[in-house]
Write a structure and sequence with these properties.
alpha/beta; Glutaredoxin; two-stranded antiparallel ribbon; 5 helices; about 40% helix
C-alpha cells in the first residue's frame, strides 16, 4: 500500500505546483527598472542623421515602445499605437530592436508611423539595459527620467484605457 502512496503524493505535489503557476499572468514579469532611472543611451534615429539620448528626454513624460519588423505581436498592437499617437500629447518613441534599417523603414511605411522618432538598437544593447524579454514591450518614463510602468507584450485597448492613459494623465499633472 505504501508503495502507491509515495508516487501519488509526488503526483499531487506536481499538480499543485502546476496549478499555482497557471494563476500567474505571464505578462506580469517583474521589472527591476520600475521606480528607478531609465538606462542612459544615445542611439541613431531611423530616418534622420541624428541621435537621441535619454538626457534629451529629461523634463517630459514620454513612452518608449520596443518593436521590430520581424515581430508578429507588434503587428497586433501597431494600429492601436498609431491611433493613440494621433490623439496623445505624450510623445511616443520607438526602439527598433535587433532589426535592419531597410526592413524597419519599409514596415513603418506600410503600417504607419506612430513614433515621434524611432531609435535604432541594431545590436539590442539598449533593449538589454531596459530588461527587454522580447518585443513588443512598452515603458512609461516620467519627467525625472524614472521608469514608472512596463508593459510586456502587445498594448491592448484594455491596458491602454485602464493603466496607461490614467498613469500618463497623473504624470502629466505632476509638476506641470
Amino acid at each position: 500500500m505504501t508503495r502507491f502512496l509515495l508516487p501519488l503524493a509526488i503526483f499531487v505535489a506536481i499538480v499543485l505546483a502546476l496549478a499555482a503557476g497557471l494563476r500567474h499572468d505571464p505578462r506580469e514579469l517583474p521589472s527591476a527598472l520600475v521606480g528607478k532611472p531609465a538606462p542612459q543611451f544615445s542611439l541613431p534615429v531611423l530616418d534622420a542623421p541624428s541621435s537621441v539620448s535619454a538626457a534629451d528626454m529629461r523634463g517630459k513624460v514620454w513612452m518608449l515602445n520596443v518593436w521590430a519588423s520581424w515581430c508578429t505581436a507588434c503587428r497586433s498592437e501597431h494600429p492601436l499605437l498609431v491611433d493613440f499617437a494621433g490623439k496623445s500629447t505624450v510623445p511616443l518613441y520607438g526602439l527598433n530592436y535587433k532589426d535592419t534599417v531597410p526592413a524597419a523603414r519599409s514596415w513603418l511605411q506600410q503600417m504607419g508611423d506612430p513614433y515621434v522618432q524611432s531609435l535604432v538598437d541594431a545590436d539590442g544593447r539598449v533593449g538589454i539595459d531596459f530588461g527587454v524579454y522580447g518585443v513588443p514591450e512598452t515603458y512609461i518614463i516620467d519627467r525625472r527620467g524614472v521608469v514608472r510602468y512596463r508593459q510586456v507584450g502587445p498594448v491592448t485597448k484594455d491596458t491602454l484605457e485602464r493603466q496607461i492613459k490614467p498613469l500618463l494623465l497623473q504624470l502629466e499633472r505632476e509638476h506641470a
